[in-house]
Amino acid sequence: MGSPLPSLLTDGERYQKALQVYYDHSTDFQAMQDFINNLFHDIMSGTINGKSHINVLGIGSGPGDLDIELLSALHLKNPDMTVDNEVVEPTPELISKYKELVSQTPGLDYIKWNWNIMTVQEFEKDWKEKGRTKKFDFIHMFEMLYYVEDNEATVNFFRSLLNKDGKLIISVLDGNTGWGKLDKTYGHRFHNPKLTFVVSDKVKQYLDSGGVSYQSYLLPCEVDITKCFIEGNEEGELILEVITEGLNFKKSAPPELKAGIMELLRCPDCSVESNGKITLSANFEVIVVDQLS
User: In what order do the strands lie in the sheet with 284-290?
Assistant: First the structure.
């Protein structure tokens, strides 16, 4: 087995650029917007009702778009409630983007911001070493369990930080989707070997085995990968880098790996080809976990 590809995460500027291109070609953000508009407040109502202040923790918050959507949705229904928002994000470029978004978004004066430029592992280590006792009403980790060595232990740690009636909301790839099948087939070739490949079924399996209470919601999502098959197309190459997490994937991947991935991406089990457009299925699941008992 060859060495893993160089990671896109090591180049913060390119990672930010690739993410933006990916979101421009994906329904990912729209799927989360639908979740926020239709389900989020009901899920959180038992946690926030009657409270004048809540503590929120965002893990791997990226440029902050989703965080602000979540906090704004809570504020809309609870306009007198203040928020202490703790942000954990290891990429300085994304933290800068987040801060810029905050400065440009009116009406966020009910939020106090705490910035942590560190990985989730560094945050956990720092938290334990300092003996911090703060509890949170709402913790979210969207699309970040792929970047920890022991995702079950990570989930358990953050559950331990929840207040009574608190909620931990996780989003993770559905293993039965096209992207999930790609990861199952080739993930060992392009992921960091220290990290554990995880999809929604695996998360629910260890929650079930621990008798943990949770609810799950499948969110349909797709990615237009047509440009990935156009030689030399920069946006297509950036989308591939997000999908594989491989920095300069088309240049760094061995020919046989690149050929195998491109063939699988185009197969009917993973994508739909219609009217010259190739669409990868990329459904994900939102899992709402209750406080650690």
Answer: 111-116, 82-88, 53-59, 136-142, 162-173, 284-290, 214-219
